[in-house]
Amino acid sequence: MAPQNFLDNLEHLRLITSVALEHVQDNRDEFAKSGTGIEVRRAEKSISQLRVLMMQLEKEFTILQYLLADEAPVAAPPPRTTNALVARATSA
Fold it and tell me: Domains of the chain: which residue ranges?
């Protein structure tokens, strides 16, 4: 992936995350009041999956910052486990 594409993807992720956060903040209280049992369980499952993805993103950002640091050795980053984490979260 070209560096500009990577930067564009980071910017898109920031924008999407910002909109999602605003939506959660605007609708959280109403959902808590009016969500049915099934809807609440679906929300709990989605929240769990999102938390796994957020932890994985944090890990990837940490690795990237390490690789970008001046003192970082030229070495391969640790193996990626995104698919395993997402598969585990979605099967819950």
Answer: 1-34, 36-92
